[in-house]
Fold this sequence. Notes:
- By secondary structure, this protein is mainly β.
- The protein folds into three domains: 76-190, Macroglobulin (MG2) domain (Immunoglobulin-like, Sandwich), CATH 2.60.40.1930; 196-332, Macroglobulin (MG2) domain (Immunoglobulin-like), CATH 2.60.40.1930; 337-432 and 460-484, Sandwich (Immunoglobulin-like), CATH 2.60.40.
- It has four helices and 27 strands.
- It has helices at residues 2-9, 18-30, 42-67, 480-485; strands at 76-81, 85-87, 95-101, 106-114, 120-128, 141-143, 147-154, 161-171, 180-190, 196-202, 206-208, 231-237, 242-250, 256-263, 283-285, 288-295, 302-312, 324-332, 337-343, 346-347, 351-355, 364-372, 378-382, 386-388, 391-397, 403-411, 418-427.
- The protein has a five-stranded mixed beta sheet with strand order 2-9-8-4-5, with no helix packed on it. It has a five-stranded mixed beta sheet with strand order 11-18-17-13-14, with no helix packed on it.
- β4 (106-114) and β5 (120-128) form a beta hairpin.
- It starts with a helix and ends in a 10-residue tail after the last helix.
Amino acid sequence: MAGSQIEQWQEPELQVDAAVQEAATAAAITLAPAPAPLPRPRWQRRLAIAAGIGALGGLGALLWWFFGRTPPHPYVIDLSPSQSQYATAEAESPRLSWQVSHPRQVQTMLLRGYAPDGTLIYGPETYDLSQGLPVSLLPYCSQTRRLLTCREVPLELREPGQYRFELTLLPDIALNLPPVVAESSLVTVADLPQPTVVELAPDQVIYSEAGTQVSASTAGMAPAVTEAGISVSWIVTNPETLQDLLLVVKRPDGATLGGRRFSLRDPENPSQVALPDALQPFCQLQDRLICQGVPTGMLEVGQYQFELTPVPVNLGDRELPAAKQSEVVTIEPRPVRIASFTINGRDAQPKYLVPVELGQQIPGFQVAWQVEGGSTAKVELLPSPGTVGLQGALSMPLSPAGTTTVTLRVTDGQNPPLVRAVTFETFNPRPNQPVIINQGGGGAPGSEGAPAPQPAAPAQPRDPLGESLRDRDAASDQPLSDLQTRPPEDLDLKF
């Protein structure tokens, strides 16, 4: 039964087509396992191993580049001035150039200037690079990922002196790097060439007062000062740096009388020097300022000393340069002269004798004068009225004391005075006049035995002095009436 079961499971033998069998055979051959490959050469195995190791190394280097490497340190490649010397006369200021590597690692730059002794003179000037180039550096700098280049950056520094500049780089705080410091070479800022007054002189040291006439008798006198006053001349070096000129006039004791300022700047272009209108007729402006015969307006009698001070441009807090002083200039007064001095219209004589009879009225006289002189002339008529004008006339009485002296005193304020004096002396022309005794005895009480006074002569009107003066040597027997009626030209008034 068993066998029958096995047989039941056997399939009937199938008839296979020859074409199908060939195809199956070919497929069987194809699906059969390939033969084992031949072993590779040793050099190929080593090359493959090296390539694998290189790939792993490159991957590790790439990972280190992004995560483990130390960022490059920024540093100053160059820091130098464009030139070693600058001159403030040309309005120059120092200019600085520098180069910085890896500027993206820098957060802030600090620029300072130091004197040779270490004193901070300039800055610190701060430049923030965290957001790129600051606006103040855009005209002068260019920046790439690896380099920051700045050229001819101007520095607002005009004080004369020597400087050394220092550039400090402050890296990004996240990098934890120390500051980087670089110094420049020494820079010299030259001061302005100071203007200097090398000469200041008056055209004359002695003048005569304005209006003085020089004649043959006064040929030795100094020429008279004109209406323009004393003239002075000067020479100033380095006029291109002049701002102003100060001309001051003083007394020899130092008291200031006045002054004048001349501006040497062109109003339309203040950076250029130019002559003011007041100096153009007298000055030449070249490498030196030469002025000749500049009028000062000082024409009064006295002594003067002039002082010229140059004021440079950009003076600031600095002191003025030293002033130049001139010699003392003197304006002498016009000489005084008594042109006329008369008594009653005639030239005054040193002494007059005036006869006055007993009981007569004492006559008076008229004095007149005329004086030539300048502004300082002073005329006095003594003892009274004192100071009078250069010319005039006065009626003056004689003193009852018997002697009267009238003095005309003239001075110019500097030289010894001129003096003319006239003395009047009264006398009795009849000293031996007979005494008449009153015979009637009807004299006044208390007058007994005394001579009776003569009746007073009728008062005579005041005569001109020339009709009242008498000569002491006149004949005593000549009647008095004759003396009174004689013309003045017949009287000898001299003694």
